[in-house]
Design a protein that fits this description.
This protein is of the alpha+beta class. Helix content is 29%, strand content 32%.
């Protein structure tokens, strides 16, 4: 007897995006049911995790759909077993993963992708946090100024959410304006030391900004790591020594111009599989747009860690 693989779990992050994600989640559910899929629309992550494990073990699960952004996708991969297929109905702010794999935010189109799409097995990064639980990230991890901005955005969002603002927890690009201004005024660009552990050991000192990419996506599409691939068993690093906002603006402009930043003497690019990131100061880091904590931190690649359902290659 062949068991039909027709179970779909839709996991809604009610805090994600600039409009209610539940409306599009319900439309996706309706579209899938028209295609004879069995759909469960859930908002409780513990329930999502439990049912995904059962359906995947029984070989009934077509996919777990995250309705949200990059952080939502990373949360699902962290909470489900290796090999569990996931995909995204984009409802966050940057949606780097969804843009990279052309998943989009249209429920009708995603229903078609779920019915006819392909399964890819991809690498993930893993942050081994000192004294904490290891966390997977799918797109990128960064340390320094932009992580400080991310901390500010999320602190502001959570405060408005606690105050009961109906739409206060949703993040848009405008949500970054005040935290960016605060970081521009307050952030001190503390020095970091990057220890490349494998495959070739070396120490890189006096770093002010540090980025580690699994996928070549950042912000609005800025190609900071032009050679990063999500299936090559490597994490690409991009390291900046310039310790000011002026340097950051220069790096951004040159990166936008055919990745010319990589030719600057104050910029280092490379690949490795394991790193240790250290600082004498409490430098923050972020993973896929979510706050992570402060250094020190160990980072490594986990080959073939997550399974993504993407549009069929024609």
């Amino acid at each position: 007897m062949i068991i039909p693989i027709r179970k779909v779990i839709i996991s809604v992050n009610p805090k994600a995006g600039r409009s209610s994600p539940m409306l599009r989640a319900k439309e996706l559910s309706d579209r899938l049911q028209e295609k004879k899929f069995s759909v469960e629309l859930l908002t409780d992550l513990d329930e999502v995790t439990e049912k995904a494990k059962i359906f995947h073990t029984n070989r009934e699960l077509r996919v777990v759909v995250g309705v949200g952004g990059d952080g939502t996708a990373a949360t699902l991969v962290n909470r489900t077993e290796p090999g569990t297929p996931v995909t995204l109905l984009a409802s966050g702010t940057a949606n780097l993963l969804a843009k990279h794999f052309r998943l989009g935010n249209n429920p009708k189109r995603l229903a078609e992708i779920i019915e006819t799409g392909n399964i890819l097995t991809l690498d993930a990064g893993r942050a081994n946090i000192t004294g904490g639980v290891p966390r997977l990230f799918l797109v990128m991890l960064s340390c320094g100024f932009d992580a400080d901005v991310v901390n500010g955005v999320h602190a502001h969002r959570e405060e408005r959410y606690r105050q009961g603002h109906k739409h206060g927890a949703h993040i848009s690009y405008f949500s970054y304006a005040q935290p960016i201004c605060r970081s521009l005024w307050q952030y001190r660009f503390h020095k970091m030391t990057i220890e490349v552990i494998e495959p070739e050991h070396k120490i890189i000192n006096t770093i002010r900004w540090a980025f580690f990419f699994n996928i070549n996506r950042y912000a609005w599409g800025l190609p900071l790591a032009p050679f990063a691939r999500e299936d090559d068993g490597q994490l690409d690093y991009v390291l900046f020594r310039g310790g000011s906002v002026f340097h950051g603006c220069c790096y951004t402009v040159l990166a936008q111009c055919f990745s010319l930043h990589r030719f600057l003497p104050t910029v280092g690019l490379g690949q490795a599989t394991r790193y240790r990131i250290m600082s004498d100061q409490p430098v923050p880091f972020q993973l896929d747009g979510d706050p992570g904590g402060v250094l020190p931190l160990d980072v490594e690649i986990v080959p073939n860690r997550f399974t993504l359902l993407v549009p069929k290659i024609r």
